[in-house]
Amino acid sequence: MIAYGLSETGPVRRINEDCFVSAEDLRLFIVADGMGGHAAGEVAARIAVESIEKFIRRSHGTDDFSWPYGVDATLSYDANRLKTAVCLANRRINRLAENHDDYLGMGTTVVCALVADDHLIVAHVGDSRLYLSADHDLVQLTQDDSWAATVFGANGGGNGSRATRHVLTNVLGVRPDTQVHLLERPISGAETLLLCSDGLHGSVSHEKLKEIVASEQELPALAQSLISTALELGSRDNITALVARCSAR
Length: 249
Description:
Oligomer: single chain
Strand content: 25-35%
Strand order of the largest sheet: 1-10-9-6-7
């Protein structure tokens, strides 16, 4: 797999509280969108991606590690690894917030993709999203943890006020435990993954995202096109786009 990510502070924010990791050797890709005062969101997002990558790397190709949150028999071995990594990140952020007044209440969204053999494993918390593009179609694989999505279904469908659409019902780090959403599905052929923060999907329509991701652009140009389009359409948030492509077999 090859990947390329870009993150843009945007026209309004002073600090970029988005963070991403692209670990091609692990076939692990992560986007986090932090929140909290005193730059605490930036800290939460950075801790999330670093902690998740560290555990996946430490547990890669070995069984010499512990399962502090147990094992879910309904999930594959690698899905259990990813779930454990996200739970450990949640605990680390939460403990840091408890011990530092400046970080009180900080949290972050996170969306992760781990490709293992012929399977894609997705874990997410919050409203950062993962899309899969294949055969000129774009499928959203995650469902937002937001007030609008809870009340109106799917991802809110544009319902509710702007304020309520952005109220999150689940984030990483705010509580000692969090609900991690997991999905496993087979992948095959030439597919493209898009992981992004709401600075992108909150400004660019699904149809426009589909058009851009389905283009034949090289990944650096594709990521730049996504960021530029969000800015042109008035995004005022931090914007992160991480694209990863499965090479044709």
